[in-house]
Amino acid sequence: MPVVIFEDEEKSVEVEAGTSIQDANDKADANIPFGCTQGECGTCLIEVLSGMENLTPITEDEDMTLSAEEKAANYRLACQCKITGGEIKIQPTDEIF
User: Fold this and answer.
1) Cβ contacts of 5 within 8 Å, gap of 6 or more
2) Which domain holds residue 67?
3) How do residues 20-73 score in pLDDT, each as one tens digit?
């Protein structure tokens, strides 16, 4: 079963494949902030510390919202990511490139 680790809070949660990071956040009672939940505002910007290969590809909305630098630095929008398997280690960020 896939595992999401919220590095900054030292929390982890097991989820089913196909679960969104947003739902994993709610299940773990973690503190990733969300705004529009549509991939447009950037409020839920996270850094993927490990396990990027265990997430769905960047969505069209993410592609339009994230800068090239953010994408290259393994940043994603938590509202758009779904877990495909394995382990993912993340932390929220207010980093702006």
Assistant:
1) 11, 12, 87, 88, 89, 90
2) 3-92
3) 999 999 999 999 999 998 888 989 999 999 999 999 999 999 999 999 999 999
Hunting for tokens 């990071």 — which residue is that? 21
Torsion over CA of 55, 95, 43 and 50, rounded to 10 degrees? 20
Q: Does residue 97 lie in a domain region?
A: no
Q: Spell out the alpha helix ranges (H) of 1-97.
A: 21-28, 60-65, 68-72
Residues comprising the chain, all counted: 97
Write the CATH number for 61.
3.10.20.30
How many domains would you assign to the chain?
Answer: 1
Residues 6+ apart with CB under 8 A from 42: 35, 65, 66, 77
**Which of these, 75, 70, 2, lies nearest to 13 by C-alpha position?**
2
Predicted structure pTM score = 0.91
